[in-house]
Design brief:
This protein has 277 residues and is an alpha+beta fold. It has 9 helices and 9 strands.
Length: 277
């Protein structure tokens, strides 16, 4: 019984989500919603998705979405190949059904407890005001680069870009990156996405954060990987995310904290009434 009590407390960390049921994609007619993705994110981070660095949240969401798409595709293929009618599947299903009876009962019991917990607007705003540092977004840049082996190659590329500006410069840079860059981002026009200070090697980092939007490096930037021609597409100043943007994450976190306290109270009460030898 004591082990079961510990299991109950640990399983609690993986319960529920407050997300919306907006459909993101449809896989052969089967909808995958925002709620599906957020539920998976909350389970993976134990309710602390808001602590994932902001610049990685979109990437993390995309990874989870791809995993859910993959699961649906595999399941459909298994159905087509008759896996659900096989003897092995039916035997394992019976075993799983027995194991899941207790697990499902626990989850439903926990969900009812979770649904009873309410978080007031005052609690949400107090948490936001007292923990604003959690929602700070550091300065970030969106850059593209062309990576080549030799300095002369990089200089020739820069020479061909010097007279251009605006959209023409961006279009030409993307074209050059696709045809000449040896880096993995080459096929994507050299796109590195958004990143913050310290994510790139020092030589690259120092240069790109000193650039102006819509400009290209006038000299090749040498790193351990070769010579880079860099185009700065966008720059975002350090900011603090607004309350409305993070309200849902705060509510989820406070709910989970209250839920753990409620679980402890319930478990203490149940153990007092139980015969444990």
């Amino acid at each position: 019984m004591m082990n079961k009590a510990k299991i109950l407390l640990s399983v609690a960390l993986f319960t529920g989500t407050l997300a919306f049921a907006e459909t993101l994609v449809s896989v052969n007619g089967k909808a995958i919603s925002q709620e599906d993705v957020d539920s998976e994110l909350m389970r993976a981070t134990q309710g602390r998705f808001n602590q994932v660095p902001p610049e990685r949240q979109a990437e993390f969401r995309q990874q989870v979405l791809q995993q859910l798409i993959g699961k649906e595709l595999i399941y459909e293929d298994a159905v087509k190949k008759g896996v659900l009618k096989s003897k092995e599947y039916k035997e394992e299903y019976v075993k799983l059904e027995e194991r899941m009876k207790e697990e499902l009962a626990i989850q439903v019991w926990q969900k009812k407890l979770l649904d009873e917990i309410q978080i007031s607007d005052k609690e949400l705003k107090d948490y936001y005001n007292q923990n604003k540092e959690e929602f700070n977004q550091p300065e970030s840049v969106h850059a593209r680069h062309i990576l080549v082996e030799k300095e002369d190659e990089a200089k020739k590329i820069i020479a061909g870009l010097k007279s251009l500006s605006g959209e023409k410069l961006k279009e030409k840079f993307i074209e050059e990156a696709k045809s000449k860059s040896t880096g993995p981002s080459g096929p994507k026009g050299g796109d590195l996405g958004y990143f913050t200070q310290g994510q790139m090697v020092p030589e690259f980092n120092d240069k790109v954060f000193s650039m102006k939007e819509g400009t290209v490096t006038l000299e090749p930037v040498k790193t351990q990987f070769g010579y880079h021609v860099i185009y700065l597409e966008d720059k975002k100043s350090a900011t603090t995310r607004k309350f409305d943007e993070v309200k849902g994450f705060i509510e989820q976190r406070l709910k989970m904290e209250k839920f753990k306290d409620a679980m402890k109270t319930k478990m203490d009460d149940l153990q007092k009434k139980a015969v444990i030898k």
